[in-house]
Fold this sequence. Notes:
Layout: H1 2-14, E1 18-19, E2 23-27, E3 30-34, H2 37-40, E4 43-49, E5 60-63, E6 68-72, E7 75-81, E8 86-91, E9 97-106, E10 123-125, E11 132-136, E12 145-154, E13 161-165, E14 171-176, E15 189-197, E16 200-208, H3 210-213, E17 220-224, E18 227-231, E19 245-253, E20 266-267, E21 271-273, E22 277-279, E23 285-292, E24 303-305, H4 309-323
Parallel strand pairs: 1-4, 3-9, 9-16
Antiparallel strand pairs: 2-3, 4-7, 5-6, 5-8, 8-9, 10-11, 11-14, 12-15, 13-14, 15-16, 17-18, 18-22, 19-20, 19-21, 19-23, 23-24
Amino acid sequence: MIFLVLLVFQLAITESIKVAESYWTLKPNELVVDEDMVKYGNKVLVPLMCGEAFEGQDIVWRRESGEQLQERGNRVLVTVEERQGGRYTCHSPNGSVLNHTLVLIRWPYRKIIKEAPEKGYIHCSTNNYSGSFQCSWTWDEKRDGKVVHIKAVRSHSGGNVSCSLNSSGHSISCQDHEYCPYSEELEHINLTIFFRSKYVVETYYQRFQISDIVRPDLVQINEKNDSLELQYPDTWNLPFSYFPLTFQVKEIRCRKKCDCNSSHHRSSKVNLTQDQHWPLKKGVTVCVRAQDDLCNSTWSEWTQYKRNKNRTRKNKKKRHRKEE
C-alpha cells in the first residue's frame, strides 16, 4: 500500500515519465530494464528495493556519484535516461551501506559483437559426439564489451550443461554432462549469452543439437604403395562402424600453389566415398574432407596431399642402385 501511494505521488510529479513494465534480475543485485523508447520516451522510472528486512524504515539512497536522492524509504522509483543505467546504494540514516543495485538497460539493437556472413553473431561447433562444444564471436572495435552471464539448458529437461568463458574473452567452452552419444538426441540446447558494454546489455540466443554443429577435424592422409590411406581424425568417436564418416575427394592439377577451396583449378568431379583407400596419380594434388555420414552436418576443413617430387627422385635413385 505504501509503495502504491509513493508510485501515484511520483507519477504526478514526473507527469509524462512512465514506470518500466518490463525488468528482470540478471544476477543478484543486477536489474535489467527492457528499453522501449517508442513506449517510454528517453526516460523511464525504475522501481528499486533495498531489501525485505528494511520495510518501513527510513532508508537513504545514493547514486554511484555520491549524489543523494530525494526519495527515501525501502522502495523508491529512480529516473533512468536512455542507455544510462547506474549503481544505486541504500543506507541507514547513520550512513551504513545496507545494499546496492546495479541498473542495466537492455536495448533491441545489436552493436556489441559483429555479425559474420553465414555464421551469424555466435558460431557454435564441436569435433565429435562427446557432449562438449565451443561457441565464438567477434567483438565490435567501437564497443568495450564483456560477457556477464551464460545460460545453457536443454529445451525440456533443463539438463546439466555447464559453460565457462575462455581466457581470450572471445569464446566459451561448454559440456553437456548428461549427453549420451549412443542414444537419439531428442532435445535442443538453448544457449543465451548476455553481453555488456557500460550500462547496456544485449542478449544473443542460439538453439541447436550436437548433431547440428558437429564438424570433424582434419582427415589424416598417409601414402602407402602408390595409394593414399584416408584416416579418421584422432578426435572422432569410436567405434568408427557406429560413427561412420563420408569422405569427399577431389583431384586438382595446378602448376603452383593449389587451393582446395578454389573453383578455378582444373579438377575432376567431386567424389564421395567411405573407402579409406584412394589411388595416387602422378602430378595430381588430392583434397580430402569428411562429414558425418548419418547427418547433414558441416564438412571438415580440406586436407591437401601432393607427392613430393624430390622424394620420388630419391626413390628412383635407390631402386637404380639396387638394380646395379
